[in-house]
Design a protein that fits this description.
By secondary structure, this protein is α/β, with parallel strands linked by helices. It is 17% helix and 27% strand. It is built from five helices and 15 strands. Strands 1-2-3-4-5-8 form a six-stranded mixed sheet, with helices on one face.
Length: 235
Amino acid sequence: MPISMSDIRITTLAENSTVDSELVAEWGYSLLIEAGTLRVLFDFGAGHALERNARALDLDIWGVDCAVVSHGHHDHMNGMRTWLESFYARGTPSPPIVVNPATFEPKYAREEDGRMRYTGCAHSPCELERLGAFFRFSSEPVEVSRDVVTSGEIACVTPYEKTTRSYRKNASGAFELEPVCDETALYLKTEAGLIVVSGCAHRGIVNAVAHGMKLTGSDALLCVIGGTHLYDAKP
């Protein structure tokens, strides 16, 4: 049987606003997803909010079954280092961290004045592995449990969704648009329909939903949670 809705709890640990004075807001993103006994940390934020907010909410973000990185931008990844320091202090590896192989590739954004700003992760995979990171690199879907699966690389099939602006350097050193093929969503099959958990939807939120429906065989969509990057979208 799919997951019961009464067994699901999704808590925002990092986001750019808060109404609670005990919580910290930042330009970053992280969720704790609980589905029955399964606990998944989805993204790590920019590095300031995750641990403080988890402690304020009395949530254990270190005893999760696994973590999933949605893509390699700093506001989704930089908090990983602080999270790993707890495992390093104990001398134990982290739970598996599911990442696309392209996640650590350098990424840039073009400012209004034309300058390029680095937007990738501030920490190298080797640095994070020295702190105990146990990476599971995969561009294919990863089954976290029977009813929870990562998207793997999301197919771009809609004619109206364009990969949102993110840049990389090509072999000649010039900047070019990148396809953000590391963008990864998480899908939860529930008794009421599919839950789609998105990072930024750089590959298109409709693409992410369609990919999840096909991948899981779901015929009903319950909800979409997370980033949509629709600021350039027409009505």
